Amino acid sequence: MMMRPAYALVTAARNEGQYIRNTLQSVVEQTLPPKVWVIVSDGSTDRTDDIVREYMAGSGFIRLVRIDNRAERDFSSKVFALHAGYNDVTDLAVDYVGFIDADVALPGNYYEQLLARFAAHPRLGLAGGAIVEERNGSWELRFADSLKDVGGQMPLFRRRCYDDIGGFLPLPWGGEDAAANVSARRAGWDVRVFTELQVRHYRPTGTAGMSVYGARLRDGKEDYFLGYHPLFEIGKAVHRILEPPYVSGCILRLCGYFWPWLKGETPMVDEDFVRHVRGQQMRRLFAMTSGRSAM
Asked: What is the mean pLDDT of the chain?
């Protein structure tokens, strides 16, 4: 018999007691479960750890790792927690590694389907499903997603691809998932989103620990420090003007982007990365203005 492919999962969780049960249930019910799932509780003070322990007893593959040593927190904290989880699986014989947020729920055959696609496409390095969020009583594709880049909520990497790009970049304003997509392509790997695999996202995008207004301001800062082109950022803000909080969100995104520019701050990625991503973005901007693409 052909051996089924093995994969490991890593989750960074901080005070996810409201949502993590959905995530846990959806993983333990997978038709192809992981070899190991490391859940890193990053200083949680709610019931997150207790809920994880409930599922540990019956699964046989869940590990809980607790870290409490970061006094100052920013959006890079999640990446440091993911690194801690990945370090816990580096000695395992797995060809794939996935990262899953603690506020999503996966289709029951999510990993079986993704691994079949990896097997069929040897240059596929990074893949994932499409995010859906609840809106007006139904689950719909997240507003303005391009469906070209795999979201940070549930990516699955071929392990060689993940090691090629050096893992996620710890960026203070977030964007490690966007950087991973760019880096995977730069390294010669294919990146695919499979829209038929729909992943439910329970928390409004980008609002962990902040209001939707703070999230839009942070979005602009994230894009600036990733080296995004200013024309692309303006187009992106205008394109998302129908996303809550609408016009104010558009203004806040642009303020978040241009304020560090006015202060003379520089992107937190290397110049080659900036040149690559800006070249891609100008092509996408042209496609968007032609009515052929989202941003």
From this structure: 91
